[in-house]
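Dear colleagues,

For the upcoming journal club I promised to circulate an example of a predicted protein-ligand complex. I picked one with NAP because it came up in last month's discussion. The inputs are reproduced below in full, followed by the predicted structure.
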Amino acid sequence: MSYLDELFSVAGKTALVTGAATGIGRMAAAALVRAGASVMIASRKGEDCIRVAGELNGLGAAGRAEGFAGDVSSETGIAALVAEVKARTDRLHVLVNNAGVSWGAPLEDFPYHAWAKVFGVNVTAVFHLTRELLPLLDAAASDADPARVINLGSVMGTQPLADDAYSYTASKAAVHHLTRTLAIEFAARRITVNAFAPGPFQSRMTAFATATEEQARHVGRHVPLRRIGTPDDIAGATLYLCSRAGSYVTGAILPIDGGQSVQHGLTLFKE
Ligand SMILES: NC(=O)c1ccc[n+]([C@@H]2O[C@H](COP(=O)([O-])OP(=O)(O)OC[C@H]3O[C@@H](n4cnc5c(N)ncnc54)[C@H](OP(=O)(O)O)[C@@H]3O)[C@@H](O)[C@H]2O)c1
């Protein structure tokens, strides 16, 4: 085995990535498949997950993908998803809580129900899906190779920027805090819990602002590194946190944002 394989391979691991038929979830799932994992992808549109799993299997990579329907927006949906996962595996090395929704509206019109809807998928589901899958994570966990949970936070959960998405930004701050509290609680079980805090990436959620190359360039101009994120940016972070390389990291809120989390408009004494 090469040095890089020893450090970054996820060969033989089993993973579940929610919401992985599109966007960031698909980027993470593709990375895991390419690095040798067996990856389940699930979201409401089961047909899309089956199709995307087929596309990932067509890469000719070392790993495999399997797609099916799963809706994390309710207790019964989570129970059904957990049953699907348990029918396929008795251990889970990696859980990526990626499924997420947003809602944008001006302050004056922001609807009441857009809080419960967004928090239900972005926060409540992260807690309950993880809790329900603990027996499978426990079964995969060891001192040398902990099981891994990655939650999708956001730079919008770090910086006080609502951009008309009031419940979304609050939900992502909640994801960051939940990540840290679960990290300390699960350490004794040999399960690491970390979060990605991405900046702007092309996805279905951000298509309104990033779908075309021109739009993507425009958004990228506001990022300190002057570009939006790419699939490799998610792949690198995913493989780091899920492989031997990341086995001593827990409770981290990893900025994958081209510097947005350290960006500010303050000046003091220098012009
Ligand atoms: N793109 C960015 O710039 C960015 C930045 C920071 C953080 N994030 C976070 O990254 C994660 C992925 O978002 P994305 O940007 O890649 O957007 P996306 O393309 O819209 O992906 C979201 C995924 O979540 C799934 N989903 C939504 N509701 C679900 C439910 N009830 N049950 C199961 N799956 C559900 C969707 O699939 P179905 O419709 O089939 O259910 C979809 O595939 C989210 O948590 C988001 O907040 C994104």
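Two points we might discuss: The first strand starts at residue 14 and ends at 18. Residues 17 and 269 are 47 Å apart (CA to CA).

See you all on Thursday,
B. R.
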